[in-house]
Design goal:
Blueprint (H helix, E strand, L loop, with lengths): L23 H19 L4 E2 L2 E2 L1 E4 L4 E4 L2 E3 L4 H22 L2 H5 L2 H17 L2 H9 L4 H26 L5 H9 L5 H21 L1 H7 L2 H4 L10 E4 L1 H4 L5 H7 L12 H4 L20 H12 L7 E4 L1 H6 L3 H8 L2 H22 L4 E7 L6 E2 L4 E12 L5 E8 L5 E2 L4 E4 L3 E12 L6 E11 L6 E10 L2
Antiparallel strand pairs: 1-2, 3-4, 4-5, 6-7, 8-10, 9-10, 10-14, 11-13, 11-15, 12-14, 15-16
Helix pairs in contact: 1-4, 2-17, 4-6, 4-8, 6-8
Length: about 450
């Protein structure tokens, strides 16, 4: 009887030591890295109208985005922003595959930063592999400790900056200097720091392969004209070592010399020569590595390149690839994205920085007072969403003889909400018994175009 076969349901992780890639796409990755990180680390320190330019103040429930102040009632704009980001991702994926993953995704960006630190401290790929194989030593401990301290410092600064988007960062810096952090600040700084340290320092490609859902459903957004990183098998196969080709003079061998550099530079450890795989994040490090080899052996570039399935099958040139990029899916995504962006932009430009809610006094629907007058009491909930102090005039209309007994001018501080009680009266016998529609309006004394009105009900007792 044969031995029972043991099937391993879980394969242990194989450590990946990515080699540094240099070339056009590596340069573009670093450009994206600098742009995204300058924005992330720099925006909280910018000032606008005497306050932080970009601040999501959850305590006061106000979002400050440069000259715009958004309130909980403006949640629709957040939903619209998420929809715009989703369509941007769909559009970019339909045109150029996982270009977001390879160049601008935070996981890719911070992994690139952490790997740069690792190379500077531990050395090249071969040096890192040799260091890990060594037994315990003072040299190894010193290098590993220095690397992790550097990673920790970057992670802590990242966590501090992240919290600075929700708590004014200058106040946060002062709290750090006086060791007066609140419990929530401690929690979120450490949580985001540990997430950065763990994901970029330890998990790396595991996040892209097993945790990120985008890798799983990307194929639904790909088609035969989507740009992907691909290997030209017709040109490269059969592959063989360069010295073997030179010695045998075999003209049947392809352009690939089987140097494996495309595998060594891959951050997820795949072999692009096996075709498109879900682990590929489209970073094009293998393209740079292969092009450098082709330059050395004086062969044309492009054995590994950005191309499409249709282009490989039909030998399309770059002009034909660009022409086929304008297909129905791309045009539909572009049209929807443009319409939503125009609608949201127009809404923000035309948005009135004043909101009014009229709340009736629940204690009395309506009452008869002296001289046979009918009185109703209301509370005006006035929201000044601008960043200037405003004085408004209150006017009422809708019933003959309707008068305002309380002061008709009210001042509201910048980005503040004020509850303002008012009393309205009308002569007995005016209007119908029961509910009567009236109109309450606010007009800015400084700018008459800043005007808002709200419908209300004036109750006449039966």
């Amino acid at each position: 009887m044969s031995e029972p076969q043991v099937i391993q349901m879980y394969a242990a992780r194989e450590q990946i030591y990515p080699r540094e890639a240099k070339g056009r796409y590596a340069t573009w990755r670093w450009v994206c890295l600098w742009l995204t990180q300058l924005a992330f680390y720099g925006l909280p320190w910018l000032s606008w109208n005497g306050r932080q330019a970009l601040l999501f103040d959850l305590t006061t429930r106000k979002f400050y985005i440069f000259g715009v102040v958004l309130w909980p009632q403006d949640f629709i704009y957040l939903a619209a922003l998420l929809i715009i980001c989703a369509y941007l991702l769909f559009l970019a994926t339909a045109i150029a595959g996982r270009v977001w993953c390879g160049f601008a995704c935070p996981q890719t960006v911070y992994t690139e930063i952490f790997m740069w630190v690792e190379r500077k401290i531990e050395g090249t790929r071969s040096a890192r592999m040799a260091l890990d194989k060594q037994g315990p030593s003072l040299h190894k401990t010193a290098r590993k400790t220095t690397k992790h301290l550097a990673w920790g410092a970057i992670a802590l600064w990242t966590g501090f900056t992240f919290v600075g988007y929700f708590t004014p960062i200058k106040e946060l810096a002062h709290e750090v200097s006086t060791l007066n952090f609140g419990p929530w600040e401690w929690f979120w700084v450490l949580f985001y720091s540990l997430a950065t340290y763990g994901n970029a320092g330890w998990l790396r490609e595991q996040v892209c392969k097993y945790m990120c859902p985008y890798a799983r459903f990307q194929s639904a957004m790909f088609d035969q004209d989507t740009l992907i990183v691909t290997y030209d098998a017709k040109r490269g196969e059969p592959r063989g070592a360069l010295n073997k080709k030179a010695a045998s003079g075999d003209a049947n061998l392809g352009a690939c010399i089987d140097c494996s550099l495309c595998v060594q530079v891959c951050p997820t450890g795949i072999d692009i020569r096996k075709g498109l795989q879900y682990e590929c994040i489209g970073c094009a490090a293998c393209v740079d590595a292969c092009n450098s080899v082709m330059d050395k052996i004086k062969r044309p570039r492009g054995l590994v390149r950005y191309s499409t399935d249709h282009a490989l099958a039909n030998n399309f040139d770059s002009k034909q690839i660009r022409r086929r990029a304008m297909r129905p899916r791309v045009l539909i995504y572009t049209a929807i994205l443009a319409l939503i962006s125009i609608a949201v932009g127009s809404s923000l430009l035309l948005r009135t920085p004043l909101k009014l809610d009229v709340i009736r006094d629940r204690g009395s629907l309506g009452r008869e007072v002296e001289d046979g007058m009918i009185e109703n009491v209301y509370r005006l909930q006035i929201m000044n969403t601008s960043e200037q102090r405003q004085t408004y005039r209150i006017t009422v209309d809708g019933l003959p003889g309707l008068t305002l007994l309380t002061r008709d001018e009210v001042t509201v501080e910048p980005t503040e909400t004020l509850a303002w009680p008012i009393r309205l009266r009308t002569p007995h016998g005016v209007g119908e018994k029961g509910s009567n529609k009236i109109d309450i309006a606010l007009t800015s004394l400084a700018d008459a175009s800043l005007h808002v009105h709200e419908k209300a009900v004036f109750f006449v007792p039966r």
